[in-house]
Amino acid sequence: MRLHVGCAMWTHKAWRFPAPALRTYAGWCNAVEGNTTFYATPARSSVAAWAEQTPPGFRFVLKLPRTVTHERRLTGGAEELHAFLDAIEPLGPRTHALWIQLPGSFGPADTGALAAFLRRLPANHRYAVEVRHPAFFTEPQATAQLAAVLTGAGAEWVPFDTTAFFQTPPTSDAERDAWTKKPRLPLRSEALTGHPIIRYLGRDDQARTVAGWQPWVARVAAWLREGRSPTVFIHTPDNADAPELARRFHGEVRAAVPDLPALPEPEPAGQPTLF
């Protein structure tokens, strides 16, 4: 039984981590979203450095390249996929899951392409799929079809919970920017596998972020009692407090599930310190 928590990145100007930032971040959180791999496949040597800077229990959820998911829409792209898989090999078991984020135009008519793609993927990785077409959330047949495809492949459905964020109008520049960019979709909270992955977007106000995640505290605690090992990523529009909030979420879940191991205390970040 383990809960992984983390943020959308491991470096942010507001955090003031010393170099190498990943080593310090890994003392605060035990997982991270690998969003940068969506835009460019990293050098294998860079990935090896990521492994060296993180403890064995740290986990990466790495996004597949956009050439595969958005440009080729899961058909073709074998060369790019092979290069990506080769590049991330040094992470070994630190790769928690490969994250297949699909564009909003990828709808129920494309489910067959997803099923075929999942069948072609190597079995030595875990896979997690994020869809953004509204029909997958509002049309029961499309929901059931997608869930069946994912379950058949042993893949997880990744929800991006933006409901708390969109409850009231934005109040900061970062919130106004996120208001135009983040998906506004119905909430999904069911797990398909023993390793559910949740992405949660709060507000720049910590109290509102914490209030909005309370249903997830209960759900994650229930999953842990069932023997699942969830991963939760905490986002806010400016992400200035994200590492602190991720640790707070872990602490709230641990209060409900006392057998959950505590996160290690982070080492001092040096001067100036975090936050």
TrEMBL record:
InterPro entries: DUF72 (IPR002763), UPF0759_sf (IPR036520). It comes from the Bacteria. This is DUF72 domain-containing protein.
